[in-house]
Amino acid sequence: CPRRIRRILDKNIKFHRMCAYMIVLMTLIHYFAHSFNVDFFTSAYTSKILVTDSNSVIQRKRLVARLIQIGNAPNETYLNPIRSNVVVGAVFLLTGGWTGVIITLSLFFMVTSSVEFIRRSYFEVFWFTHHLFIVFYGFLVVHGISMQVRGQTAASLLVHDPKRCSLINPALWPQNNCPTPVFAGSAPMTWKWVIAPMVLYVIERIIRLVRFNQQVEILKVIKHPSRVIEIQMRKKGFNAEVGQYVFIMCPQLSQLEWHPFTLTSAPEEDYCSVHVRIVGDWTTGLSKVLPSWKMPKLAIDGPFGTASEDVFNYPVAICVGSGIGVTPFASLLKSVWYVIQVNTASTHTLLVDGTISRYDSARDVITGLEQKTNYGRPNWDEIFSKTAQSHPNTHVGVFFCGVAALSAKVGVWCCTKFSNSNNRKISFHYNKENF
């Protein structure tokens, strides 16, 4: 597909977060609106006419009292669903009330467990609570099934004009051609909005189940420095491009946890590999079961695309990795080593980190290229300036994976500053992914 479309699709996580922010905002508005509604309905139910009330207040209270009573007699439809002077009890007696509480609590746990600290340190908490979206959408579909938000029907409006009849004492309505108004709620429409995504989700789950049952052969397990293990695997029909990632599940540890890992193998190799940093409970457990005499069963779901896939779609590419963010480019470096010939494409690969030991596991890939390795902090002005001078009239892809602070400097400052510099008509296209 066109480059512009690919760049939009590469921002799927950002789009997901923006949708989540909007859902939270709309939920808060919805929650507070109904909180006021329940308070008004309860106040109306307990409202009494006082001797000190003015005529206009008395008329309003009479009207409110009559509207509350509608629905008590046979063949009448109610307007006020509240039949209690206890607010909390009234809420939980309504279908919309108790389902709304469940929906709001589900969203609360999903949002609070999605903060970066929880995702990094307690991935299992994030993973399991995020699946509360099933509860969220399930109760969202039935939230309005009782049609408790009601209004006067179109047919009733023809014979009972609210503007005229509201000025008349409700006890005198029959004598003034104001028949008892009829109220009804709208049929729930939420299912029309969620049915398509839910069907897609079910299909995706079925595909994952099929992939779970496909055999994965573990060829080799290599222990690297800095608490990193490399797993080389083979799966029938598995094909991947540079920079893609997979979800891995180990039934021996948990049949519910799927963890994402970037592929570090090249498309030209007859196996796929991942580098796993031992930092949490699941990765620690995996490191313990892998050295056993009988290899554990692994399941692979994927591969899935990232922005790094497009690296060969640019005549010139600058790749910047920070920390564990160098792993998406390990696959690229291997592919360059295998197939890229001199003058076919120009790839400037920068591995940026505080300590070289953080990517010891990729050292054999780097040295295998027999290219000069520079240590220290890169001079971004010099790098982008030289690239702009050497490649006029060129689209340059800048691929980044790492910390947000460096992303802001490389993406916002460098790409904006040096695009079309000195009328050379060079364009830097920024592609970012984060772990």
Structure description:
The chain folds into 3 domains: 182 residues, no CATH class; 91 residues, Beta Barrel (Elongation Factor Tu (Ef-tu), domain 3), CATH 2.40.30; 124 residues, Rossmann fold, CATH 3.40.50.80. It is built from 16 helices and 12 strands. A 4-stranded parallel beta sheet has the order 10-9-11-12, sandwiched between helices. Strands 3-4-7 form a 3-stranded antiparallel beta sheet, with no helix packed on it. Helix 4 crosses helix 5. The longest helix is centred in the N-terminal third of the chain and has 34 residues. The relative contact order is 0.08. Keywords: Membrane, Oxidoreductase, Transmembrane, Transmembrane helix. It catalyses: NADPH + 2 O2 = 2 superoxide + NADP(+) + H(+).
- Structural class by secondary-structure content: alpha/beta
The overall number of domains is: 3
The share of residues in helices is 40-55%
State the major sheet. 4 strands, parallel
Q: Which residues sit in consecutive blocks of at least 5 with pLDDT less than 50?
A: 349-359
Provide the gyration radius in Å.
31 Å
Summarize model confidence as the mean pLDDT.
78
Strand content: 15-25%
In sequence order, what are the helices and strands, one letter per element?
Answer: HHHHHHHHEHHEHEEEEEHEEHEHHEHE
Overall shape: it is: elongated
Please provide the count of β strands.
Answer: 12
Distance between the termini: 25 Å
> Helical stretch count?
16
